[in-house]
Task: structure prediction
Amino acid sequence: MKADAGAEVVQAQTQRDEGASYLGEVALVDGSSRVGQTGVVFYNTLFDENASCHIAFGKAITRTVQGAGSQSPEEHRARGVNHSSVHTDFMIGDPEVAVDGVTRDGEAVPILRDDRWVL
Result:
């Protein structure tokens, strides 16, 4: 799959530094999201990302990792926390998106189906 437009912008961002092309965030949002239920597109990622599932490449959200806020980029990398000057979100949610977790034994466990949590 290729972008109709703007691919060069994304490629430039993912080449900005060592961590820019790595995953920085995964957020699972179901259909009960109050922001999503408004049906409004705010054209502001800080609002719009709460309307649906989304991923980001680049910098991880360090405040979600205990102790990471006071650590250096090297310490982040040692713990598997991605460090980058880039953090770009992409909304990927849709009622048809099916999300599974995978156990250590390789078993697929349904998490989201039909825009609802099924855990």
